[in-house]
Each structure stands twice: as structure tokens, then as C-alpha cells.
């Protein structure tokens, strides 16, 4: 299933593509039950029937659930009711670490701030 703005995935209304990576796309969405913004990390269709990828996806969800740190997006749940599988995550605003690294070398103070 290909996502696009306006599609519903369970009780989430998909709005904007935030980014893409090796394990799928991340979309901004609205949780229509709780009336809050979330990020949906979508497992690609190509991985939906791959036991190793499904296990990795499940491990990622479990690891995120075990962590509590202001620098790590909280996981709200896993959406599996219809369509592609998705991790439901706390949305994170601002530039990515990759954006910051692309700006060039940073001071030790800036690096320590990021890692705390």
C-alpha cells in the first residue's frame, strides 16, 4: 500500500511525508481518537512478508518502549489493523543530526549538548 496525504491508516489520518530511510517512510499524521499529532514509521510493503524484517521492526518497537529520554522519540504504539504496519511515534520538531553534521565541524560544547 502506498501512502499519500489524506489516507487513513486505522484511526490515523496521514498528512505529510517527513522522511525516508532503510526501514521505510516516516509520515506526519493525526491520531483522530486522541486529537494529537503523531509520526508514523511505515514498514515498506517489500518487507511485510520477510520474517527477519518483521522481527527487526518488532525489536525496534520494544527497544523504543523500554527507553525514556528527552532526546529519543517516545513510541505510542504499533498500528497493524489494516494496510502497512507502522510504529506510532511522538513527533519530533527541528533539524536532524544529519542536518547538523552537514553544517561542518562543531565545538565540543555543542557535541556534548547533543549527546546529553
Summarize the structure.
The protein is an alpha+beta fold and 116 residues long.
**SS field, number of helical segments:** 3
The CATH topology corresponds to: Phosphorylase Kinase, domain 1
Q: C-alpha Rg, in Å? A: 16 Å
- How many runs of DSSP E, i.e. beta strands? 6
What is the CA-CA span between the terminal residues?
A: 38 Å
Structural class given helices, strands, pairing? alpha+beta
Order of helices and strands: EEEEHEEHH
Largest sheet: 6 strands, antiparallel
Low-pLDDT residue spans: none
State the CATH architecture: 2-Layer Sandwich
List the domain count as a whole number. 1
CATH superfamily: Phosphorylase Kinase, domain 1
Helix fraction by DSSP (H/I, runs of at least 4): 25-40%
CATH classification, class level:
Alpha Beta
Keywords, please?
single chain; 116 residues; alpha+beta; six-stranded antiparallel sheet; globular
Amino acid at each position: 500500500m502506498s501512502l499519500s496525504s489524506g489516507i487513513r491508516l486505522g484511526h490515523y489520518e496521514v498528512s505529510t511525508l517527513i522522511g525516508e530511510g532503510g526501514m521505510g517512510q516516516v509520515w506526519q499524521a493525526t491520531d483522530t481518537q486522541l486529537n494529537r499529532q503523531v509520526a508514523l514509521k511505515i514498514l515498506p510493503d517489500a518487507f511485510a512478508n520477510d520474517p527477519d524484517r518483521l522481527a527487526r521492526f518488532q525489536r525496534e518497537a520494544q527497544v523504543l518502549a523500554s527507553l525514556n529520554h528527552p532526546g529519543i522519540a517516545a513510541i505510542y504504539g504499533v498500528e497493524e489493523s489494516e494496510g502497512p504496519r507502522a510504529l506510532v511515534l511522538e513527533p519530533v520538531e527541528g533539524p536532524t543530526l544529519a542536518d547538523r553534521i552537514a553544517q561542518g565541524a562543531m565545538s565540543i560544547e555543542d557535541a556534548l549538548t547533543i549527546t546529553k
